[in-house]
Amino acid sequence: MTQLVFDAQTFLNFRDYDFTEHGGHGYRWVDVKSFRIPQDTQDSELLTALIAHEQFRDDYAGGGVEPSGTRHGPYWLKHVTEHSYQLIGKAEALSRLRDWVDQHGPVPESLEADLASQVFAIVDSATSCYSLGDLGSKALHDWGGVHVDFHEYVAVDQERLLLRLVVAADD
Questions:
Q1: Residues 6+ apart with CB under 8 A from 145
Q2: Torsion of CA 13, 18, 22, 27, to 10 degrees
Q3: N or C: which end of the chain has fewer CB within 10 A?
Q4: 166 - beta bridge partners?
Q5: What is d(CA 118, CA 123) in angstroms, rounded to the nearest whole number?
């Protein structure tokens, strides 16, 4: 089985930025988990390895990673498979993220700069990008509806041998 090596995590909490002259933070945040990947590995194998990785067992609601957990974001882990992800163009992923960021109006320049370098650049440099689809209400775990917005992208960069899991949500 393909092995991913967890490398780093970046967390951008919109509440950490000064929104006094802007629309508001909306209790939003972006979490980026970075993994080193083996050379010449098919994207389908990488998605399967990501789902099997303990860092994927995160409910993104303050509990953090639970190595033997059964939740991923709003879903029961058992419902998330490699087929839950759709290949999406980088432009479409960037547009969706941009719409989510701008939904309450402009964001502070410092947040915009951090998003540009730590989120948008990751998606833009990917050799392929996947979006987690809506798995339906039957896949939601017992309190899975806590997020109003939950967006998840997997940015694969075969040239740099990196996979990044990008989750943009609110709480």
A1: 74
A2: 30
A3: N
A4: 32, 153
A5: 9
- Give the total number of structural domains in the chain: 1
Q: Strands 75-76 and 150-157, how do they pair?
A: unpaired
Q: How far is 23 from 165, CA to CA, in rounded Å?
A: 27
| Token pair of 115 as six digits | 């998003």
- CATH of residue 123: 3.40.1000.50
β-bridge partners, 131: 86, 153
Distance CA 100, CA 103 (A): 5
Helices of type H across the chain: 43-52, 90-101, 109-115, 121-125
Tokens 């967890």 appear where? 6
Residues with pLDDT less than 50, the chain: none
Q: Classify residue 116 by burial, with Cβ atoms within 10 Å: 0-12, 13-18, 19+.
A: exposed
Whether 14 contacts 28, CB under 8 Å: yes
Beta pairing partners, 32: 10, 166
- Structural domain of 82: 5-170
Structure tokens at 77: 């882990």
